[in-house]
Design brief:
heterodimer, A: 493 residues, alpha/beta, Aspartate Aminotransferase, domain 2, Aspartate Aminotransferase, domain 1, 7-stranded mixed β-sheet, 13 strands, 11% strand, globular, B: 447 residues
């Protein structure tokens, strides 16, 4: 066991596991006396202790405060994690999500007592309908991958409704891993589509694979190379001609918001990551929210519940019998990530239609600026312009003995969170940089300067220094092989 | 515009550096036909106070359970969340970080997830837990999918006492994933014979404890029957505070526990975000969905944590992954953990006993009303009343009197002939006068 005071270096703090801080007799919550009442547990009372540690409130606050300081965050600096859209998270949303009458609403209180909440869900959907140019949005999916699965279910339900069960989904090889995983979870076989030399889906290869067994194609646009799929209209036309649907992974919508509507690109179905484009906090791994925009053909199959308005005001339609369409069923408990809707709607309302357009423009401008500053020293995988993120591969490190991983760890030592590394898989040793619209030019310049200095240092033959990095972090490189071979997934006394 | 980092001068200089005349030149790959040439027909930007006013107006059109006697449960429970929880989860280092892909600068998140996994394993009585799912319903759906993988069978037996939202999520998976979900009829008065529905095609039996109607049951015999038939027992828990008083599923022989963790640390928030808990046995861990934080050492031999067993996951295995889940409920899991850390062994068990005692007292008072009967023998903090009138109308009438009196079973199970049943939940947030107000209002409405 490590004592709290052991290993501290200035403001670099060590902290034991909370289980190692157990203090018998301590408690962090005062509770009222328990009224007398006979036990009605039917002989199923817990026998024996649970084993939870006992701590006072000050010790708990200190524990988590100390842990928090071992994390990098957007609040601390640029977080250029490609495909993740780590933009500033406005704190207004945090305040509003906690308002009495919003944060404390119960999902099953009568509709008559939740008219403002239902209005809010529809207002959020309405913004998303306008921004996507699509007629319906299913609000219940809990995150991006959940939205993908839900969207594919809508496609499958629509196909089945016309007696046209199909077997497979086409997925470009540059797609996020969630795409093939979602297709599989929806019962489809997955067939990969190669990229062409420009980093985009090979239209001819796609067309070759289209036939009446293809339910749809999962496009990411802009794609994970940060490039707009120029042939999107032709692709959509080809897919539609074969009776299939076009799914778009909306993880990269930040490049388009307010400037291009996916509905105008022939897309039938697209999820939106509210925790990316719409600035809700990612929280170290969620919660997210993944509403799915749907075409008129797919809308009748949207999952339950639906928020409907009639003469009496807003109502939640929670059962198939209460709606006009053929909903595919339920994908989540209750009505979606309401608390995330509050934050996303506050963000959209703050920026307005004009501000959201500026978001896309600034995000694209910032990525292109980094591309221009870095290409030549680093090796861009594809010529610009890029969209909201720029992709490099490891050719600039060839012969230096420095890998993409080493390069990323050296960035950490310089106080910057690395870009996404080794993704997408279509280029070697990928470095995918997404600056977002939140950063100032000064920050972008400092970031570019750092990348250039590191690239020069790698070329100067300082591989050993890179391999040592990081050294200025709470922990240095961790043994991932050991973690996987001998899994220790919980504390034991 | 307050959220944008660039000034007009920056934009000009950056366009020059790129060597283009305007930002339009960066969108040239977008087909010209799809360009929006001006802002959409949407409201313009608004300052903070204006946005805040709008949301306050929306909030005021709702009846806040904090301002009314509230007895709502059925899968979401209002508990007191200590102020420290809300403060700590809003620290930017937790709030504004991503999934911990770079462990050297994510030890705070990774250690707290490791602690969360341990807490969940302890509460449920299981060996190991993951770093969270979206919610209890989706965790239950994933539990069934995992049972199909483990047993290589294609049928799941679903108890009629499983929360209908959970059952419906499983049914959705069944339809699209291609397996048989075999749901039982709701049995508000018990008498369900689940063991009789086992068979050599059965991957798992899914039950809930306490069940939808609040009944507590011992599933030990069912677990044995499942194991004898080569099936897994999946136990769902919608009210995790019950585990402070009730024997945990692990002690009854459960193979997978799928639970809703909202009760600890998280607001009801009109249904989300909540936090799914997922726990299982050591032997099944490689079939588990979701992220896992695992202990290891750094190059200097110091203890640290990383995301591990990634070869189960979509970013490595793509279509062969155990689940498509990526983003889960990290911050809600943190809130859960902090609340449970504050409670500790003594606080948590005391909170559970307090909830139970308050519920037991109210159940007897309500059951004493003319025409009202209590269906439960054994329950935790929620029970089912049979009313002499349809419960939906009663709940509306109570709401008109400013009381959120419970959830009509028919809201969750319409057309099941259960219109006269009302679910009533009691937590420590119920004020001293609230039970009396409910009793009086219900007497008036039923009169």
């Amino acid at each position: 066991m490590i004592r709290p005071e052991e290993g501290n270096r200035g403001l670099r703090l060590e902290e034991p596991l909370i289980f190692e801080l157990d203090t018998p007799g301590a408690v962090g919550v005062d509770l009222p006396d328990i009224p007398d009442a006979p036990d009605r547990l039917g002989g199923l009372a817990r026998n024996g202790p649970i084993g939870l540690p006992r701590l006072s409130e000050p010790r708990v606050v200190r524990h988590y405060t100390r842990l928090s300081r071992m994390n990098y965050a957007i609040d601390s600096g640029i977080y250029p994690l490609g495909s993740c859209t780590m933009k500033h998270n406005p704190r207004l949303g945090e305040r509003l999500a906690r308002l009495p009458g919003l944060g404390d609403l119960h999902p099953l209180q009568p509709d008559s007592t939740a008219q403002g909440a239902l209005d809010l869900i529809d207002a959020c959907a309405d913004w998303l309908r306008a921004l996507t140019g699509m007629p319906a949005v299913a609000m219940s999916p809990a995150a991006g991958a959940h939205g993908e699965l839900t969207g594919l279910m809508c496609i499958r339900a629509a196909l089945e409704a016309r007696g046209d069960a199909r077997a497979k989904v086409l997925v470009p090889e540059s797609a996020h891993g969630t795409n093939p995983a979602s297709a599989r979870a929806c019962g489809y076989a997955v067939e990969s589509v190669p990229a062409d030399s420009s980093g985009r889906v090979d239209l001819a290869a796609l067309t070759d694979r289209l036939d009446p067994t293809v339910a749809g194609v999962m496009i990411t646009n802009p794609n994970t190379c940060g490039l707009f799929e120029r042939d999107i209209l032709e692709m959509a036309q080809a897919v539609h001609a074969e009776g299939g649907f076009v799914y778009c992974d909306g993880a990269n919508f930040n490049a388009l918001v307010g400037r291009v509507r996916p509905g105008d690109l022939g897309i039938d179905c697209m999820h939106l990551n509210l925790h990316k484009t719409f600035a809700t906090p990612h929280g170290g791994g969620g919660p997210g929210s993944g509403p799915v925009a749907l075409s008129a053909d797919l809308a009748p199959f949207a999952p339950l519940p639906w928020v409907l308005r009639d003469g009496g005001g807003w109502r939640l339609a929670e059962h198939a019998s209460a709606v006009g369409g053929s909903p595919l069923g339920r994908v989540k408990g209750f009505h979606g990530q309401f608390g995330v809707f509050v934050r996303a709607l506050a963000y959209m309302a703050s920026l307005g239609g004009d501000g959201l357009r500026k978001v896309a423009e600034d995000a694209v401008l910032s990525a292109n600026y980094l591309l221009a500053r870095l290409d030549g020293t680093m090796t861009a995988s594809f010529p610009g312009p890029c969209m909201h993120e720029c992709l490099f591969d490891d050719r600039f490190l060839r012969g230096t003995g420095v890998t993409t991983l080493d390069f990323a760890k050296a960035m950490i030592d310089a106080g910057v969170h690395p870009m996404t590394m080794y993704f997408p898989l279509v280029v070697h040793g990928a470095l995918l940089v997404e600056p977002t619209e939140s950063e100032s030019k000064e920050t972008l310049d400092r970031f570019a300067g750092l990348m250039l200095r590191l690239a020069e240092r790698a070329r100067a033959g300082d591989a050993a220094w890179f391999r040592e990095a990081p050294v200025h972090t709470p922990r240095r490189r961790l043994d991932e092989t050991r973690a996987a071979r001998q899994p220790v997934l919980r504390w034991t006394p | 515009m307050r959220y944008l980092g660039l000034t007009d001068a920056d934009r000009r200089a950056m366009l020059d550096a790129i060597g283009v005349g305007s930002v339009d030149d960066l969108f040239v790959d977008v087909p010209r036909a799809a360009w929006l040439d001006g802002p959409l027909d949407l409201p313009g930007r608004r300052p903070e106070p204006a946005v805040e006013r709008w949301f306050v107006e929306l909030a005021e059109r709702n009846l806040s359970p904090a301002r009314a006697p509230s007895f709502l449960g059925a899968g979401a429970y209002r508990h007191h969340v200590p102020a420290a929880v809300d403060h700590l989860i809003q620290r930017g280092e937790f709030l504004t970080s991503y999934t911990p892909y770079q462990p050297e600068v994510s030890q705070g998140t990774l250690q707290s997830l490791f602690e969360f996994q341990t807490q969940v394993a302890l509460l449920t009585g299981m060996d190991v837990a993951n770093a969270s799912m979206y919610d209890g319903a989706t965790a239950t759906g994933e539990a069934v999918l995992m049972a199909l993988r483990v047993t290589r069978r294609r049928r799941a037996v679903i108890s009629g006492g499983l929360h209908p939202h959970y059952r419906e999520v499983v049914a959705t998976h069944a339809r699209f994933h291609g397996f048989a979900a075999d749901p039982g009829d709701p049995a508000p008065q018990g008498g369900e014979d689940l063991a009789a529905r086992l068979g050599d095609d059965c991957a798992c039996v899914v039950v809930q404890n306490p069940d939808l109607f609040g009944h507590l049951r011992d599933y030990s015999a069912l677990a044995e029957a499942c194991h004898a038939a080569g099936a897994l027992l999946v136990v769902a828990v919608t009210e995790v505070v019950s585990l402070g008083a009730v024997r945990p599923p692990g002690a009854m022989g459960a193979d997978i526990v799928a639970a809703e963790g909202q009760s600890l640390g998280n607001a009801t928030a009109f249904g989300g975000p909540h936090v799914g808990l997922f726990a299982t046995r050591d032997s099944l861990v490689r079939q588990m969905p979701g992220r896992l934080s695992g202990q290891t050492e750094d190059v200097d031999g110091r203890r640290g944590w990383v995301l591990t067993l990634n070869t189960r996951e979509q970013h490595i295995r793509r279509e062969k992954a155990t689940s498509n889940i990526c983003t889960n409920s990290g911050l809600c899991a943190l809130a859960f953990s902090i609340h449970l850390a504050l409670l500790g062994e003594d606080g948590f068990t005391r909170l559970a006993r307090l909830n139970h005692a308050l519920a037991a007292r109210l159940a007897d008072r309500l059951a004493a009303l003319p025409g009202v009967s209590l269906l439960n023998d054994a329950f935790f903090n929620e029970f089912t009343l049979r009313l002499p009138k349809p419960a939906a109308g009663v709940v509306e009438a109570l709401a008109e009197r400013g009381v959120l009196g419970g959830v009509p079973v028919a809201r969750l199970l319409p057309g099941a002939g259960l219109d006269d049943l009302l679910l009533v939940a009691v937590t420590e947030t119920v004020g001293e006068d609230d039970p009396g107000r409910l009793v009086a209002a219900l007497a008036e409405v039923l009169a």
